[in-house]
Amino acid sequence: MAKKLMKGNEAIGEAAIRAGCLHFFGYPITPQSEIPEYLARRLPEVGGCYTQAESEVAASNMIYGAAGVGMKVLTTSSSPGISLMQEAISYIAACELPVVLVNIIRSGPGLGGILPAQSDYLQATKGGGHGDYKLIVLAPASVQEAVDLVILAFQLAEKYLNPVMIIGDGMIGQMMEPVEFPIEGVGPPLDPGNWALTGCKGRPKRIINSLYLDPIQCNEINLKLKAKYEKIIANEQRWETYRLDQPYDVLVCAFGMMARICRTAIDELAQEGINVGLFRPISVWPFPYDACYQAIEKAKRVVCIEMNMGQMLEDIKLAARGSREIDFYGTAGGVVLSPDECKEKILQSLEKTQRGGKSKARGKK
Amino acid sequence: MKKIFSYTEGLTSKTMHYCPGCTHGIIHRMVAESIVELGLRERTVGVAPVGCAVLAYEYFNFDMFEAAHGRAPALATGAKRARPDLILFTYQGDGDLASIGMGEIIHAANRGEKITVIFVNNAVYGMTGGQMAPTTMPGQVTTTTPRGRDPKEIGYPVRMAELIATLTTPAFVARVSTHSPKEIIKAKDVIRQAFKYQADGRCFSFVEALSICPTNWGLSVREAEKWLQREMLPYYPLGIFKRPEDFKEDWKHGGH
User: Fold this and answer.
1) Rounded distance, CA B89 to CA B47, Å?
2) What are the structural domain ranges in chain A?
3) pLDDT tens column, B99-122
4) Mean pLDDT in chain A?
5) What CATH number does domain A240-364 carry, 3.40.50.920, 3.60.10.10, 3.60.15.10, 3.40.50.720?
6) What are the two backbone dihedrals, phi and then psi, of residue A50, each rounded to the nearest 5 degrees?
7) Do A62 and B65 touch (CB under 8 A)?
8) Percent of chain A with pLDDT over 90
9) Which among A205, A210, A212, A218 is the top mutation candidate for probing chain B, defined by the most B β-carbons within 10 Å of its own β-carbon?
10) In terms of pLDDT, which residue wins out, A363 or A18?
11) Which residue in A136, A146, A304, B201 is a FRET match for B7, CA 20 to 30 A apart?
12) Burial of B166 (C-beta count, 10 Å sphere; 0-12/13-18/19+)
């Protein structure tokens, strides 16, 4: 299949169609508006339906309805819009409906700015809305990976009947890269199973609901969800490592585009004879704690670099189990670190290991 | 002997939780009967609100959603656009539709979603215990307007049917009442028309049903019926505000 040069946002829209999604509901917001624009043009060509909602509140409830009647459905937005969707996301997770959401993250808090950031990590991975629920959250580091993860997102949403969110920063949305689509044409429709509201012809009525006034029943629903999340934790951890096959003193932990920038810094350091490892989670929920720990274990020190004020840092600390010192470096507001700046931060961590700043575990010995 | 009346197949046998004298049960029955009479039960999907009718999904005998507070028209939009062959309706109260869900209802109406909306207006928040609604009458005492609703402070009640009828797109907009058997017979006919229009592929149909709330009004059923007639009817006139036949498709010339 021939590679095509595409803008990240447009490639995400096309990937949804290739995954078999023919329904989109959304609201314009920078820096993701090219996704609805692309789909407004493209969906009617493939017999799909594009609808511009009056708000993200409405868009997120529209996907609740579309998924509830058994159709693959997508919404996309950026940070302030995703905040408005949290109510519906909680309902959709509670009702166990397969939807895919894309957050092309811009800087916050508040109206923030329109430039790239990674500051919705905690909102995406730790809840965001009310109640005990989890989204499967995937973080691509290239336009090609965004395409692949959108297709995977529809498969996982259907497999686990759970909302899946792609988190990319504004860079992924705005940059152009060559991409290849693994599926030709429009992918298969959703299997409506025994849950979708398709009209009660020849069967008893069905209800899609998240109200359980009986505390015992509500507890049972929460336990059922927890069992599902444990299954997802066991089966769906994804990550990438780089240069872990050679000894390293410093391990860099980064996700999404920040990991890609760090990789350039790591390559440059390798040319200077300094080997540094990289751990990049692809599924940020479920977070690959064990794989991350194995990478941390071989290092003297860890540096976590993010385009936020230290959000994935909390997961890296959990993964490290207190065994290593973890340095953090982050920027916000749309300030993107250059490879040189990353290099400088990595070297600072390296220097600390050489000054005798050993890991906690080794220090105790 | 010829059977002239039976319990509708559109309702389950579940005992309803509504207070004595509440007209939700009657409105449920009119909706259910209309859907069954039009032969639509097996392709109908209803959307229950948050409010007194939150458990409506237990009572209607066809596929049902339960929506977030006020969002039923957005949910129904998504469902209907994904499956245009289904019949979609929302059943909402005045807090759900005219307060927290004002944005969703106006835009669903204005887009001309091919759904039917049943709006129950009893001038008060019922489930939460009798607070002021956007439809509460001037001077009406509620738990949050203990000295009566003062329009100088909080404005006048919203007339939803008239508001929606100002939009060019919606096909059918009506207001009915449930304060007497005569009005209930008329209301049933209007609700049936609304579903018929949807089945015929017409866009957005909206029926506002004035309803009594003896519990939160602090009145007996008879007194409540009189209060509705005396206080609500002059402000919320009954009638059909819009029909598809009135609509001329001239969008190419900028609408009308």
Assistant:
1) 6
2) 4-235, 240-364
3) 999 999 999 999 999 999 999 999
4) 96
5) 3.40.50.920
6) -105, 130
7) no
8) 95
9) A205
10) A18
11) B201
12) exposed
SS3 A188: coil
pLDDT in tens, B136-159: 999 999 999 999 999 999 999 999
Cis ω for the linkage preceding A339 (within 30 of 0): no
Chain A: which residues have CB within 8 Å of chain B? Answer: 23, 25, 49, 51, 53-55, 57-59, 61-71, 73, 87-88, 91, 197-202, 205-211
* Residue A197 to residue B64, Cβ atoms within 8 A: yes
Cα three-residue angle B89-B94-B97, rounded to 5 degrees: 50
Burial (CB count within 10 angstroms: exposed 0-12, middle 13-18, buried 19+), residue A233: middle
* pLDDT for res B251: 53
pLDDT at B250: 55
Task: Name the residue range of residue B230's domain.
Answer: 24-248
Question: Which class in CATH covers the domain with range A4-235?
Answer: alpha beta
pTM of the model: 0.96
For the question of an ipTM over 0.85, the answer is yes
Per DSSP, the three-state class of B216 is: helix
Give the DSSP H/E element, type plus range, for residue A166: strand A164-169
* Nearest residue to A48 via CA among B114, B81, B110: B81
Residue located via tokens 């957050």: A103
Task: Tell me the residue type at A1.
Answer: M
CB distance A334 to A116 below 8 Å:
yes
d(CA A101, CA A150): 9
